[in-house]
Predict the 3D structure of the following.
Amino acid sequence: MSELGNLAGTSGAEWIGRPRHEQLQPKAHPVLPCDDPFYQPPEGFQHADPGTVLRSREVEVAFLGLIPQPVTAVQLLYRTTDMNGDPEASVTTLIVPAERAAGHVSPLLSYQCAIDAMSSRCFPSYALRRRSKALGSIAQLELLLIAAAVAEGWVVSVPDHEGLRGMWGPPFEPGYRILDGIRAAKNSEHVAVAPTAPIGLWGYSGGGLASAWAAEMCGKYAPELDIVGAVLGSPVGDLGHTFRRLNGGLFAGLPALVVAALSHVYPGLDRVIKEHTNDEGRALLDRLESMTTSGAVLHMAGKNMADYLDEPLEDTLARPEVKQVFDNIKLGAEVPTPPVLIVQAVHDYIIDVHDIDRLAEWYSAAGADVTYHRDAFNEHIFMHPLSAPMALRWLTDRFARRPLKDHLIRTAWPTMFNPITYAGMVRLGIIAARVITGRKIRRRPL
């Protein structure tokens, strides 16, 4: 009998057996997900319902892999779905506040890191662990913002929303993985999430894109989840336009990573790459698959994909196989059912503000409740921490089920000029200092 019991011909509701739970091993060095047996789903997992916990373990979380954090962290391997509707597995890391108020229902936040790479070294489930070797992973820095959410008294789910193969860019499936990670958190026997706990989503850049897919997919894929709000920070509304915008520039590595991943998902794109990319270009895409986000950006800075083609780049991008991919991966497939806060800097050199303008307008016209903060003074990188106090306040209001005043709220006043921002940044600074020194994060009083 398999680890899940004999699942042949059964539904997830008839699942028998118990998933294995591994106790914390403080001195163990984490193994890369691509080599770690924990990530391999047991035989018969495909017959379980999406969100079923297949395996769990306790882990140590550490800042930059070096500074252990005094929090409870549990990782769950769970059953989910890819973009074609086929069963697969993924992992989420649940981080629980050290102090939880008695009788108080803790909200559940799914925080999506900007993984932005194919290398399993960048998966949050690896990068957040103590003794991980993930230099160049953005998730290690985002622990500071995850800690801010934990300090609010929220249980935080940090999913590997790119799946076990690190697929960055495909549509739909990041949302499925996030939503099934939330289901797994609610199903877990090792982290107490109240059935009535309100649920929120938050992510920025690549994490904002993943959060947007979850907000779009939740109404049809997981209508039972009580998702009360989603913060979409600079959510890469049009990856095709972003490719053209960044190719040949300082951040050319980001769209090149997307192309490397999508070639594994779309056979037509893979065929075009093999037919029209020279040996050097194909070797470059292969090397990108093992690089961290920062490593790929540094390696690809200033490189133009046109230099590796046997025809003009625009001719390649105009091919039906490529156009179909870029059309398919664009946000706006469905209308978000929860209210959304969209945060976007006007002077963003990575994500074109006009792409996000169109996304916000489409969401609103289609009936979604949209708060759009279009920051008139900021840029991409600093917009994330500077908007964090706003995101936390907005999520707090959604968890408290306070009503939104209008169907569409649009703001432009720069966060840098808002005194409330600096009050929030002081608290974030205190939390960051505690994370960096490995001290307990004090919960905000109720």
